[in-house]
Specification:
26 helices, disordered N terminus, mainly alpha
Length: 648
């Protein structure tokens, strides 16, 4: 008894000594940690100032000092902040690849520290860099990662902003219907939050989608809603931007007086605020375009020159290139030789800053200029350059579009796989709980038998036999259950393999179908372009070889065989989507052949532009056909036509 007490006393003394030592150590660590935190805060304040004045080398040196302190003190969040700051510095230098690498390291550290909010912010910055690089599939992938973390944090505002970013990636990739769906999802969240600035911005983005689709009236309606919200919020800068967009839409509609009124309203606000010189330059240039369309060339020249002067003052070379081209075009139309130096300067700037579309326009203008002067050799040279650049841009855009669609498709597949893994994990968890309960039940039964064995000694043999029989029965049941589980696992594995093979077969057939459609689009586009050119040559008085051109046109007409192309497309389509037309006809027997074609193209998620190329019609006609099809299918206004057809 005494020995036991002595042992307890010694243990208590040792525990007290350890507690005192630990407390002292903790105070030391706390003091050191506090000193490190203060040092990092002081360096961070200096870092902000160095970055503000764009002393990037000094800023990087400060970040490296912070990293040393944070590493020694094991301050993981500060190390994550340092990587994010290095990404910011490299982004300011224009080193996009280095910036992305630093941001990725920062995101990994933030996630390890369970700081999902900061990790989501870094993923968003990576997505924005990819947007600037025109790699929209990669941008969508990182915006999706950010969205997943925002949802973990239940950050409604962050979710809305991420949906806007993802919609922007779809918009730039040409997936306008998908972009509109995401914008409307973001708008619903903004409405719930009653966030007026976000509501107005999303409405402006939605209007941009409809402008791309040439639905200018609808775009104008959304802009009017955005304008009302900007004014209710007393956001003068935002109001100016909406007025500018309304001016652009009105100009595209040919409503020149309305466009002039909106431009002047926007410019008045920007002049009043005095903070947006690039915006003022753009509006001044746009007013010149309006006056040119009105036929008031003298006023147009005045506005062009004013815009050009302001652009030269702020050394905005890219804007100068655009204005010089506009001014040169007006001079050429008036027969003024000053057009040539304007075109040449615009061409030099567009080549210097890789403005390929503007470079192409300059080649075309120079071709027209020299042709009007009778200098056909130079005119022909610039025509060849225009055609070569035009073909190059078309090929690059097509390749980029296919690559972006593939990346977005892979991202969507990855999201589905993650969801499946989550469901499997939950299933395993439930199975583990069931097994644990079974094990506990077996343990309880065993204990019960043991108690009964001790209580009933007189019936030991009988109880022993009962125990053995029940134990054997339990073992057989477990063995049977194990065999059934193994059999079930084998069946599930076989079913998963079959599903996997079927999915791969469908993916291969979808790629073949998409490739077939793209070949048809490219063929019709090229043949129509050649046919138009041949007709222009045929109508010219100076054309020789009229008979040959007539034969060329007949040959092209014979090659634009939409019905044969449809039959080829239909065979591939029915191989992938078996019974689609049969199910559709059963429910809607009044659909014509052309409407069935449109349903098939929409089922493939083709845009209005792609459908127009497949049917050899204008984009507006394709939109009209979509509208009429909605009527025949009795769809409500808020129903998505593509989602509806996906069900067949």
């Amino acid at each position: 008894m005494i020995v036991t007490f002595q042992k307890k006393l010694i243990c208590c003394i040792m525990g007290l000594t350890a507690l005192i030592s630990f407390s002292f150590g903790a105070r030391c660590v706390a003091a050191i940690s506090q000193q490190d935190s203060l040092a990092i805060e002081e360096l961070t304040d200096i870092l902000r100032e160095q970055f503000r004045i764009r002393e990037l080398d000094s800023a990087q040196a400060l970040v490296e000092q912070i990293q040393i302190i944070a590493t020694e003190a094991d301050m993981q969040l500060k190390l994550a902040d340092s990587q994010a700051n290095l990404g910011l510095i490299e982004r300011a230098r224009g080193n996009r690849s280095a910036a992305i690498e630093h941001y990725r390291l920062a995101a990994a550290k933030y996630k390890d520290a369970n700081d999902y909010f900061s990790a989501a912010r870094v993923f968003t910055q990576i997505g924005q860099i990819f947007i600037g690089m025109q790699q929209y599939g990669q941008a969508y992938d990182y915006f999706s990662r950010s969205l997943a973390l925002r949802r973990i944090e239940n950050d409604s505002l962050g979710i809305a902003n991420n949906l806007v970013n993802m919609a922007g990636a779809y918009y730039f990739a040409g997936r306008l219907d998908d972009a509109a769906d995401l914008y409307f999802s973001a708008l619903r969240i903004a409405d719930q939050l009653n966030n007026t600035p976000l509501q107005a911005q999303i409405l402006m983005n939605v209007s941009n989608v409809f402008v791309k689709q040439h639905s200018y009236s609808t775009a104008s309606e959304y802009l009017q809603q955005a304008l009302l919200l900007r004014r209710l919020h007393h956001d003068r800068q935002g109001e100016s931007e909406v007025l500018l967009n309304l001016g652009i839409v009105s100009y595209k509609q040919g409503l020149l007086d309305n466009a002039e009124e909106y431009y002047r309203g926007s410019k008045a606000i920007k002049d009043e605020l005095g903070t947006d010189v690039p915006g003022i330059i753009k509006i001044t240039h746009n007013l010149g375009l309006v006056y040119k369309e009105k036929g008031e060339n003298n006023k147009a020249i005045i506005y062009y020159n004013n815009a050009l002067g302001m652009a030269r003052q702020v050394n905005d070379m890219q804007t100068q290139a655009t204005i010089l081209n506009s001014l040169g075009t007006l001079m050429m139309e008036e027969g003024n030789d000053e057009a040539l130096p304007l075109f040449m300067e615009s061409l030099q700037l567009s080549q210097r800053f890789q403005l390929k579309n503007l470079e192409r326009v300059n080649y075309d203008n120079l071709h027209q200029y020299f042709a009007s002067k009778g200098q056909f050799n130079q005119a022909y040279e610039y025509l060849l350059r225009h055609k070569e650049l035009n073909d190059s841009l078309f090929n690059l855009e097509s390749a980029a579009r296919i690559a972006e669609l593939q990346v977005m498709y892979d991202t969507e597949i990855k999201e589905q796989e993650n969801l499946l893994l989550k469901e499997q994990s939950q299933s395993l968890r439930l199975r583990y709980i069931a097994v644990s309960i079974s094990a506990l039940a077996i343990a309880i039964i065993a204990v019960s038998f043991f108690i009964l064995f001790n209580l009933k000694r007189k019936s030991l043999k009988q109880n022993q036999k009962l125990f053995e029989s029940q134990t054997e029965l339990s073992r057989l049941e477990q063995e049977k259950s194990r065999q059934e589980q193994l059999h079930l696992k084998e069946l599930l594995f076989a079913e998963e393999e079959i599903n996997h093979l079927q999915k791969r077969q469908i993916q291969d057939q979808n790629r073949e179908l998409a490739s077939s459609a793209l070949l048809i689009i490219n063929k019709n586009e090229i043949l129509n372009s050649v046919r138009t050119y041949a007709k222009k040559a045929l109508n010219s008085d100076e054309c020789e070889g009229r008979v040959c051109l007539e034969q060329l046109i007949r040959e092209i007409d014979s090659n634009i065989d939409l019905e044969a192309q449809w039959e080829l497309f239909k065979r591939h389509f029915e191989a992938v989507h078996t019974g689609f037309f049969e199910r559709l006809n059963q429910q809607f027997s009044n659909l014509s052949n052309n409407e069935l074609k449109l349903c098939a193209y929409l089922r493939m998620n083709f845009s209005s532009k792609e459908i127009a190329q497949m049917l050899n019609i204008e984009v507006e006609s394709a939109n009209t056909k979509r509208y009429r099809l909605r009527k025949k299918l009795n769809l409500k206004n808020d129903a998505n036509l593509v989602d509806f057809l996906m069900k067949f």
